[in-house]
Structure formats: structure tokens, C-alpha cells
What we know:
mainly alpha; two-stranded antiparallel ribbon; globular
Amino acid sequence: MISDPYMLLSLVNTKLRDEYSSLDELCEDMDFDPDELVEKLRSAGFEYMPETNQFK
């Protein structure tokens, strides 16, 4: 997983927008631990918004 949270945010939001209909789908396909991903982005001030399928 990318260590820089802003680079990770950019990658994840792009993938969610263009390729995946849910965070779970993205994590399964990219072999990310969903809890670890959410916590890493939360620590940088971002929250997952399922209604828009993106981190803000």
C-alpha cells in the first residue's frame, strides 16, 4: 500500500470513480485490508462516503 496518504487518496478515489462500485470491491481486487485503508486515510483527515463512493 502507498505510504503517502495524499497519493493513496488520489489513487483510491480515482479507482473508485472509474473502476469499482464499492470500497469492498476495490479492497478485494487490490488485496488491501479495508480497515487499514480506512484508518490510514482517516488519520489524514479523510472519511469514506459510501453514498458517493469516495473519500472526502
